[in-house]
Recover the amino acids of this structure.
C-alpha cells in the first residue's frame, strides 16, 4: 500500500531530487526510491568510493543532498567521507544512529542524521526473548532430538530451567532493551540493567558496571550499540561473574562479546548456555558452536521480518521526504 | 517406601499407586504415607484403600477403579486428567485432583517459546546455521513478525490465561474460546472455535481433552486458520486430528505448527521431521525442576487435606467437564 501511495505522489522526472544510495537495496526499497528520486547507487557503480563521491558532485539537476547508508556497514560517514561529499546535508541510516565519532563530524558540519527509530525494536525484542526461552527451555535442542527419532528410544530430553524468577541483566536499555524488559516482565523475570547512565523513567535496578550486573544475574542480554566502549563488553571476567548456571543472549553486534572467550567458557562449563544472533565475522560462525546443544544460533535475523523490511523502507522514504520538504526529520538522531 | 503387605506397625495412611513414584517424589514423601503399588496390593489393602495416586499419565480405567471399593480420591500428578476414567469417578462420587497451577507457568512459557520459534523460524534457522549454510548459501529466508499477530487461545484456564498475558506483552491481539466466557478476563470471547480460527494468525490449544474436545481441531478449523496460520498445541494430542494436521501442513493448507503433545506419544508422525515450519518437543512444556517441586507440593497438600478432612487443593470439576 505504501508503494502505491509513493508511486501516486512521485514528482515528475525533471523535478526529482538526487539521492546517494550507499547500501544494497532490496527490490521494494530500490523501486520505491527510483519512483521518487534520482538514485546514485554506489554498489551499482564500478568506481571506488572517493571517485564515486567526486563524480556525484556533478550530478544533475543537483548534487545529492541526502544519502542512505546501512548501520554498521563498511562505509563510515567519517571526516574523510564528509570532506569528499561536501554537498551532503542529510544522512539516513538503517541503524539506531551512527558511531559517536561519525556523529560528531556530522554535527560539526551541520549535517542532519535520521535513524531507524523504533522500527526494529519490537522484532529484535521478540527474537531476543525467543532466544532466551529457547536456551533456558531447550526448544531447538528438543526439536533436534525429536526429529532424530530419539524420543521413543532414549526417553525424554533432560529438563530445562524455569524462566519465572530469573534475574535478567540487560546491557543497554534503549528502545530495544526496554521492549525486551516489557516482555520478560510478563514472563515473570526480574529485570535489571547496565547502561551509560541510569534511566530515571524506569524502576529496574541499575548497575554501574557489567561485572556487577553479571554477578547478580542469571541471564545477560546484550542490547547495546557497538563502539569503542562496548567492544567486547562481555569478556572473560564478565562471563566468569555470570557463572556456571548463567546464559547470555546477543542480538546486538558480534563485536560486543569476546567470541573466543565465549567459546572457552561454554566448552569448560563456565557458563550454562548462549543464544546468538550475531557473530564477530558474519556469516562465518565458529564451528565449535555447532556441536554444542546448549547454544542456539540464528543468522542475524532478529532485525528482519517480512514486515519490518517494508516498515524500514517506508520510514527511510519518510525521512527523505521530510528533509527535501524542509520539514523536521521523522526519526532524527541529529539534531538531538 | 513401597511394601507388598499391609504393615500393622506402620500408622501412616495408605496410598495406592498406579505405577511407581518418581524417585524425587518417593524420597520426599517417604515416611508420611504408606505407598503400595496397586497391582501388588493384597486383598486387605485393596479393600481399605481410600486414595489412588497416579504418577505420570498411565491410564486409570473402570476396571482399576472397580477393584477399590473404599476409594474416595484419585490424585493426579499432571495438568490434564483425561487418562483417568472420569465418568466412572463421577458416577461413584469420587474426587479427582490434578496438578493445579503447578505446571501452568512453565507450560505457558513454553507455549510462548513455541509461538516465537515457529513464527520466527528459530529452530529451523539454528539448524541452518549449524550446518554451515549461512556462509555457504546466504541468509535464511525472512520469517514473520510476532508482534501484532492475532492470537486465539482455546481454553483460558491456568495455562491459557498465562499464555494470554505473555503474548499481550509481545503486542499480540488476544482472543479466546472456552466452554463459557470469563467475565473477569480482558480478552475477547469468541463463542465458536471456527470463528476464532478464522480470525486468528496463531491458535494456541491449552484446554482439557474430553469427549467434546476430542479432535476439535479438524480440517475445517485448520483451513480457517489458513496457509499463513500457526497451530501451537500444549494441551493434548487428541485435541487435533493428527493425520489431517500432517496433510494440511504438507499441502500448505496450514502455515506452521509448534507441537508439544501428540496422539500416540512418544510416536511422532515422521513426515513432520522434514518440515521447516514445524517445531517439535517431547511433551516437555510443563517440566522444569521447579515445576516438579511445585507438583510435589500440590500432591502433598491434597493428600494432607484429604486425610485431615479439609477441602482439597486442586479438585477437578467432574460434573461440568463432560457436559454440553
Amino acid at each position: 500500500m505504501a508503494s502505491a501511495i509513493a508511486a501516486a505522489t512521485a514528482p515528475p522526472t525533471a523535478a526529482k531530487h538526487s539521492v546517494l544510495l550507499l547500501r544494497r537495496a532490496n527490490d521494494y526499497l530500490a523501486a520505491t526510491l527510483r519512483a521518487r528520486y534520482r538514485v546514485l547507487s554506489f554498489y551499482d557503480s564500478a568506481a571506488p568510493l572517493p571517485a564515486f563521491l567526486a563524480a556525484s558532485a556533478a550530478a544533475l539537476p543537483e548534487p545529492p543532498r541526502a544519502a542512505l547508508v546501512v548501520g554498521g556497514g563498511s562505509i563510515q560517514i567519517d571526516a574523510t567521507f564528509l570532506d569528499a561529499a561536501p554537498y551532503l546535508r542529510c544522512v539516513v541510516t538503517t541503524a539506531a544512529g551512527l558511531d559517536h565519532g561519525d556523529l560528531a563530524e556530522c554535527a560539526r558540519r551541520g549535517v542532519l542524521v535520521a535513524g531507524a527509530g523504533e522500527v526494529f525494536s519490537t522484532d529484535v525484542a521478540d527474537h531476543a526473548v525467543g532466544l532466551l526461552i529457547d536456551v533456558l527451555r531447550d526448544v531447538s535442542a528438543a526439536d533436534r532430538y525429536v526429529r532424530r527419532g530419539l524420543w521413543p528410544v532414549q526417553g525424554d530430553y533432560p529438563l530445562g530451567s524455569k524462566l519465572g524468577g530469573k534475574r535478567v541483566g540487560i546491557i543497554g536499555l534503549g528502545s530495544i532493551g526496554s521492549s525486551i524488559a516489557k516482555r520478560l516482565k510478563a514472563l515473570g523475570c526480574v529485570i535489571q540493567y547496565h547502561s551509560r547512565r541510569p534511566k530515571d523513567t524506569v524502576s529496574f535496578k541499575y548497575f554501574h558496571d557489567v561485572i556487577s550486573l553479571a554477578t547478580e544475574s542469571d541471564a545477560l542480554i546484550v542490547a547495546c550499540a557497538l563502539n569503542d566502549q562496548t567492544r567486547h563488553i562481555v569478556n572473560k571476567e564478565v562471563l566468569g561473574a555470570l557463572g556456571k548456571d548463567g546464559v547470555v543472549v546477543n542480538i546486538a553486534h558480534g563485536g560486543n562479546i569476546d567470541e573466543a572467550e565465549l567459546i572457552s567458557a561454554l566448552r569448560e562449563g563456565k557458563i550454562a548456555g548462549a543464544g546468538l544472533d550475531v557473530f564477530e565475522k558474519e556469516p562465518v560462525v565458529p564451528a565449535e558452536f555447532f556441536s554444542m546443544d546448549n547454544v542456539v544460533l540464528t543468522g542475524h535475523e532478529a532485525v528482519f521480518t517480512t514486515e519490518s523490511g517494508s516498515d524500514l523502507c517506508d520510514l527511510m522514504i519518510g525521512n527523505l521526504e521530510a528533509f527535501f520538504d524542509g520539514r523536521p526529520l521523522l526519526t532524527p538522531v541529529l539534531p538531538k | 517406601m513401597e511394601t507388598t503387605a499391609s504393615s500393622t506397625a506402620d500408622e501412616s495412611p495408605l496410598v495406592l499407586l498406579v505405577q511407581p513414584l518418581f524417585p524425587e517424589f518417593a524420597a520426599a514423601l517417604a515416611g508420611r504415607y504408606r505407598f503400595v503399588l496397586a497391582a501388588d496390593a493384597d486383598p486387605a489393602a485393596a479393600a481399605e484403600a481410600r486414595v489412588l495416586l497416579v504418577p505420570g499419565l498411565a491410564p486409570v480405567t473402570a476396571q482399576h477403579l472397580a477393584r477399590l471399593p473404599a476409594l474416595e480420591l484419585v490424585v493426579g500428578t499432571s495438568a490434564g486428567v483425561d487418562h483417568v476414567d472420569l465418568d466412572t469417578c463421577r458416577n461413584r462420587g469420587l474426587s479427582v485432583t490434578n496438578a493445579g497451577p503447578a505446571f501452568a507457568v512453565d507450560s505457558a512459557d513454553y507455549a510462548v517459546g513455541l509461538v516465537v520459534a515457529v513464527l520466527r523460524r528459530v529452530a529451523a534457522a539454528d539448524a541452518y546455521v549449524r550446518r554451515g549454510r549461512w556462509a555457504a548459501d546466504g541468509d535464511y529466508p525472512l520469517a514473520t513478525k510476532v508482534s501484532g499477530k492475532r492470537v486465539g487461545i482455546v481454553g483460558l484456564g491456568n495455562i491459557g490465561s498465562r499464555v494470554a498475558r505473555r503474548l499481550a506483552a509481545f503486542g499480540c491481539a488476544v482472543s479466546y474460546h472456552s466452554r463459557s466466557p470469563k467475565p473477569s478476563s480482558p480478552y475477547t470471547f469468541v463463542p465458536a472455535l471456527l470463528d476464532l480460527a478464522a480470525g486468528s494468525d496463531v491458535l494456541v490449544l491449552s484446554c482439557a481433552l474430553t469427549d467434546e474436545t476430542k479432535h476439535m481441531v479438524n480440517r475445517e478449523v485448520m483451513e480457517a486458520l489458513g496457509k499463513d496460520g500457526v497451530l501451537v498445541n500444549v494441551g493434548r494430542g487428541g485435541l487435533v486430528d493428527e493425520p489431517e494436521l500432517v496433510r494440511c501442513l504438507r499441502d500448505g493448507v496450514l502455515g506452521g505448527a509448534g507441537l508439544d503433545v501428540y496422539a500416540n506419544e512418544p510416536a511422532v508422525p515422521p513426515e513432520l521431521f522434514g518440515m521447516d515450519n514445524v517445531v517439535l518437543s517431547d511433551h516437555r512444556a510443563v517440566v522444569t525442576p521447579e515445576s516438579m517441586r511445585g507438583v510435589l507440593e500440590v500432591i502433598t497438600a491434597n493428600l494432607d487435606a484429604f486425610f485431615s478432612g479439609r477441602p482439597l487443593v486442586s479438585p477437578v470439576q467432574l460434573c461440568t467437564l463432560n457436559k454440553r
About this structure: The longest helix of chain B spans residues 289-307. The CA atoms of residues 25 and 296 of chain B lie 7 Å apart. Chain B has a mean pLDDT of 91.
